[in-house]
Amino acid sequence: MDHETFDIAVARLFRASRYAERLMFATPELREWLRSHADQSAVETVAAFSASPITTESTIDATLRLRRKQVMLAIMLRDINCLADLDEVVTAISHFADDVVRLSLAHHTKALLDEYGVSASPQSDLMVVGMGKLGALELNVSSDIDLIFVHAEDGAANADKSWHEFHHQLGKRVIRSIDNVDENGYVFRVDMRLRPFGDSGPLVTSLASLESYFLQQARPWERYAWLKARVMTGEATNVAALDALATPFVFRRYHDYAAIEEMRALHSQIRADANKRGKQSDIKVGEGGIREVEFVTQIHQLIRGGRSVGKTGGGTNHTGLQTRSTREALSQLGQHGIIPIPRVAALSQAYTFLRNLEHRLQYLDDQQTQSLPASPEEQQRIADAMGFADWQPFLQTLNMHRAVVTGEFEAVFGDAETRIEKSQTLTNTGSFKVNGLEVPFNTRLYDEVYRAPIADRIQRWFASSRMQALPPKLRGRLETLIGRAVDTCATVDTTSTTLFRLFDLLEAIDKRETYLAFLLEYPAALARVARIAHQSAWAASLLQRHPILLDDVMLPPAVRAELGTPTRGLIDWQGERRMLETQCQAIGNDVEQQYELLRHTKQRIMLKLNIADIEGRLGVMALSDELSMLADMLVDCAVKMAWRAIQPATTSATAAGFAVIGYGKWGSKELGYASDLDLVFLYDPESGMPADLVAKLAQRVNSWLNTMTAGGVLYETDLRLRPDGAAGLLVSSLSAFRDYQVNRAWTWEHQALTRARWCAGDASLARPFEDIRTEVLSKRRDIVKLRIDIIEMRQKMRLEKKDKPDSLDLKNTEGGIVDIEFIVQYLILAHSGEYPEFLSNMGNFALLNRAAALGLIEEEQAAAAAKAYLAYRHRLHIAQNNGERKAWITPKELVDERAAVTSLWWSMFASCGAA
């Protein structure tokens, strides 16, 4: 930097910092040093210091103090003159602190080892853990540094003293070297109060003692402190051991919503202390300050950061939230959709503004302060340093940013009771006597006939040994939640059905504090669960059996509302496939864990689809498409994992030449929530895979799908549609499959083939299979014989699956779903040779309309049958949502629809004596 430009920059620096002015007048040589380094990034300046060892041991303290002055001047000059951004400032001062600790530790370790007469060893290794902003590499310029000293293990260092005593002395010397004020000043103030037991605890702790402390003594706020912990020094093995202790202490394997209440209490304590000391306008601990930004990011990190690809993790991988940096954590929150990106941007801008302001407050006199100045002179200094003409415009901008922070903070930590009142989800509760029992809930919201059973269940629940055995805090939460459940469920159902489904869920999670805390914190989430339980017994049962699924679907309501969800493309299937394969790879060869991962993935996605279905964001046909794509993905992953399990040494990620063909509802993309999978295994001998290995792979894949585990069955499978049925080989070659279909298959097997498609495995077999399917379905047929075969098969099915006297099986009754399917299958087999569009497997609804367009059936009849098909699918869907395997209707229901289908059936098959 030339002299003129430098002089202007220094003049601006002096207006912003009395400390810089005093420093450069007291030590004139610093001026020329600063000019020669002004164009260099402060991070580069620190890196140059790091590369220049201190050779004279007697001058280490003086050298560190000189370097501190130089670094501070370089940072301030560049920052005040807009040559450095926030990242450069915090990175430079943090790296400098790292170097100071490292150099001081190395110097004093060598000296103390000499005094003890011992050589360096793993036991002499002292790990220095940087906490707070130092750990996050976001230190502010005049901050103290929070440190914790940890050593690997104790034992005798020499004949007289232990390694613990060695490290205690070493720690004291390091602190003194950095913290002591002498004629050259100090380097950093050192704060050791975050160590185990605080000021009353030992200065250094062993790994074993730290582990015991984490398990038995650590207080909730220490989790938040350790979130930013970074091991600054130490041998790799020791550092890894320390990280292995700290990570599970900070990050739970589940979504930890109980942390909200704990952090709210901590913040209330901090704010109360700030008010007591008159720090309401403090930009760090005051309302809308830096601490509140950190709390917002940390709570989401603590809640979600522990979920990973391990074991049965599933769901979204949030381990990116395990970052120590507040700025990076904010970015991750936006990327994961936890906070909408526009709000993340506003919060990040506010944080940057507040941190820049914090530095300018500290530049004035090199004091660790975050308080706004009171005098007009100093207010003008700060406004000028922040780039404002005067104080009022600056203050308006500051208040705008603080309002953003306050809004985000209240959205997360605002008192749950206040949110309940605002959302008006609860009514006034009171006591109500039923059969002489005093029930502290407003059961009067329910129809009178249900009040006594509700009161009775609540009373028995409260008196149960299970409830009494819960810790008081947990029991209190559960009791409160039961009361809210009573009020909430009454808004959607005044019978006991929904409430009892929700009670079943609460009983399943009564020992899981984090879920209870979440439902208490977010009344809108409780209301959402109530709506799910009301409209879907299937989903309510799934949540009861697998409460962990709450983690993946219950985003905070305000966030979900802003994010929105498209009606199509609800699931990012490519992303899900990549994540699933990554998770399976991370698990390694543990087949049981892979089983559970697949099952959890299915449950998680199905529940997400079910909620979209319930909330009207997904139609029946689109839902079936999504469920079919889910099956495609899971079966394909099962094929890959089964292949690796039987061929662990292979370099191929897929089983070349092996394919899974989906039939029935899977093949036609009409799956429901409880559908099983009709499938056939095919292979291409030219791929080189031995026949015995092919059979072993098919058996293993089938086992992966239908083995019962803690997570249930992935899919029940039916293999009877393979050539020769149950008597046939488990896997068929392409040529054998073609020969069977062309020369020996029954008409009903060709009917089944109309709904078949390649679904999983080697994609290169999709085209050969489709060629065989096209050849078989397009061949010329004796139409009269075809009709007779279809009629006979339909009559046989009706004899096997009869209606009840007072209810009809919607699938198999006359004029029901199977009649429509048989009509469409007849059209495909009879006309595909002439009209190849019938081969496209486009679904019954579309094929009926296409047949009408081609003049093969009357347009009015086709429209009526297609409309009936949609009505049937909707009714079947409702039955599945309520856990029913079949959809039963009364003889008075869907009369016109059944008549329309029967009419079409007779018009198609009357000449052959259709029954």
Question: What this model shows, in words?
Answer:
The chain has 915 residues and is mainly α. It has 40 helices and 14 strands. The strands form 4 sheets. Strands 1, 2, 3, 4 and 5 form a 5-stranded mixed sheet that branches. It starts with a helix and ends in a 6-residue tail after the last helix. The relative contact order is 0.05. About 5% of the residues have low confidence.
Which properties best describe this structure?
6% strand; 5-stranded mixed sheet; mainly alpha; elongated; 59% helix; 14 strands; 915 residues
Rg estimate, integer Å: 36 Å
- Taking all residues together, what is the mean pLDDT? 86
Proportion of helical residues? 55-70%
What is the straight-line distance between the termini? 98 Å
| Number of distinct helices | 40
User: Roughly what fraction of the amino acids lie in strands?
Assistant: 5-15%
Q: Let me know the largest β-sheet.
A: 5 strands, mixed
The class by helix and strand makeup works out as mainly alpha
Global outline: elongated
| Model regions low in confidence, pLDDT < 50 over at least 5 residues | 308-315, 416-430, 432-437, 556-568
Tell me how many strands there are: 14
